[in-house]
Amino acid sequence: MSLLTAKQKEVLEFLRIYSENNGVTPTMKEVSENFGVTISTIQNHFKSLEYKGYIQKVPNLARSIKIKGEDEKNLSVSLPLLGMVGAGYGVELYEEIEPEFIEVPSAWLNPAQKNSYFCLKVDGFSMAEDGVLDGDIIVVRKQDSAESGESIIAYIKDSEEVTLKRFYRRNGRIELKPRNSNPQYKSRMIDEDNLEIKGKFVGLLRN
Q1: Strand (E) or helix (H) holding 205
Q2: Model's pTM, two decimal places?
Q3: CATH label, 76-205, candidates 2.10.109.10, 3.40.50.720, 3.40.50.300, 3.30.750.24
Q4: Is 78 assigned a catalytic role?
């Protein structure tokens, strides 16, 4: 399981103290006001804490954060490492015949759909601003559709490349957008029929 940054530790500790004192967890607005930052910043911290198995978000509730206990946090499942994905210019799609298995926090998965998840190793830095770096292991849920703004595993049919990018619909075409301010990483516009969505990014592991 990935270690927490100093700021993530502060946010998690605030959630715990607030919950102990009030019997409920705080809203994102209350957390943002405590730290003097935007709600968007707190959303990113919550996302990281959820990916790392420390909290769980309960849908359709204003106070939607559940702090996971040590026993829950340490539960894990084994997922296959099926190959490599490009976070840059893309790499050729391949799958391991006899894959290595990676231990992943069970909180990241829908237990009823365990077979829909797999892992890939990242090659490149185009998603660095989303915290995804070269050599990281990402967890992916198999699906063939996505909402704008989601990070997906995109298979580009004509070049047989597979890449991790943000997905956007733009006037009948698809934009595959990197998350790195370096000008060497540029958005790629492709026709919708030239794209196959292999899955959605749901979590990250780093040694």
Answers
A1: strand 195-205
A2: 0.62
A3: 2.10.109.10
A4: no
Query: Hey, which residues does 102 pair with through a beta bridge?
Result: 79
Local confidence pLDDT in tens for the 207 residues of the chain: 457 788 999 999 999 998 888 888 888 899 999 999 999 999 888 888 877 778 877 665 667 788 876 555 556 777 888 888 888 777 665 566 677 888 787 778 887 788 899 999 998 889 998 888 999 999 999 999 999 999 999 999 998 889 999 999 999 899 999 998 888 888 999 999 999 999 999 989 886
Which of the following is catalytic: 165, 177, 198, 200?
165
For 6-71, give the CATH class. mainly alpha
Is residue 106 part of the annotated active site? The answer reads no
Q: Which of 2, 48, 126, 151 is catalytic?
A: 126
- SS3 of residue 139 by DSSP: strand
Question: Is the separation of the CB atoms in 190 and 174 below 8 Å?
Answer: yes
